[in-house]
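Quick illustration, no need to memorize.
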Amino acid sequence: MTPRNSLQSPVKLTAMKPSHTSALLLALTAALAAQSPAADRPSSALDLARQLNQAFIEVTDKVSPSVVVIRVAHQPDYQPPDEEQQNPFWERLPREFREQLDEQFKRRQRQRRNRGGEPVFDGQGSGVILREDGYILTNRHVVDGAEKIKVRLKDGKEYDAEIRGVDALSDIAVLKVNAKGLPAAKLADSDTTRVGEFAIAIGAPFDLDYSVTFGHVSAKGRSRIIPNFAGGNRMDQDFIQTDANINPGNSGGPLVNINGEVMGINTLIRGLSTGIGFAIPSSLAKRVSDQLIAEGKYARLWLGIGVDPLAESDFKNLVKGVTGGLVVGTIERDGPAAKSDLKLADIITSVDGRPVKAVQDLRNEVRSKKPGQPVTLDVVRNGKKLQVKVTPAEMPEEPVLARRAPSEPEPVTNALGVTVRPVSAELAEQFSLKQTQGLVVMQVDPNSPAGTKGIKRGDVITEIDHKPVKSLKEFRDVLKAADLKKGIVVNFVSSGSSKFEVLKDPAQ
């Protein structure tokens, strides 16, 4: 008997089906591929990441030649605004950094005083080439107080620049250099920019020229970055927020999308390394710069009011039956609205029939009008709906501020955190007041309900909870009946403009 495992045993081969053969071949091919050099090929995910990496490189290469470094020599007697007023986020900077900037500023002041006849270039920022014939876009605060300006390109060429025009309320400036054939940047339509897009910032932070950082568009239409009491109610605030790292020196430089188009001009930061920066939208920058180039100034229409969205205001807890709109918190002295029937605490719900919910909605509607063309405001006042007509006018270049003379501080003795005196001829002269009735604020506790809302020395309180206050007795009587936990409506006049705020206990 032949053993069953003998090699001489007969073997019967069975033909395999075609489908089985194909499966076997595929398995063999896969096994061989796993052992071949092809296994070192990048995955599709890694390949995609490399493509994205290359995209950032290409955007930087495309835009950087259109970015300029701006050096500024200030006038010998130049006194910049206090940092606390110039930048609302100054107090949020680390103490060590504030001290460093203070020391730099003092050193530059000494250099200016001792420089003799030579200019000292003690300021720096960034800019973007707008046109090939030498027009450059930057921030107004970059060139404020400049005696001499130099602009340096990526290729090292440097030009003297002159200011073609500035617009303080949008913080836009246009410079002109004597050159042709410059590499102009392409401006995006920022109205179509979407939250979440890539955002690339290019500029000269801390004198580190052509630094590139990237992040995303964090938000659009930011309109309450600068508080009203610091002049924010007059400013064109329609910022793009980004987490691309922006630092001092980036001001005036571009915020770029992935297509290499400038969608914003970097302007503000909220502290260092916080990932919160703000850029002027390119659509607004283009509108302003085009007019600055053509006419040397930008003329904008205004109503002469400061407003806040009802949904974001403490006033929303004091009204019923209204869910949206803009609360009138300020009426500027001699502004168009001051000549109309519009009142403080009116809630504007629409302009010429178009609903308005954000501050920028109102600005856009007013901008679309021609000088002398009235607008109809739908407002809610004390629960009643009515219409008010206002004729927009050209905004004056600078606000009219009252002069205030110093005097000895007085103790604060009430829950609002203010010390007041009735208006008198002496106080009217001291504070340059036109107001003849009300209570002059003589002292404010900065941490009090009044202080945190921006009420300051020299303001005149005219009403509390819609009741006139002309004497200290009326002031005390109204405060006794008021509920600081719920909120107290205070009408007052500041620098000639009528305003109101809702004051609440900070602990609430």
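The chain has ten helices and 26 strands.
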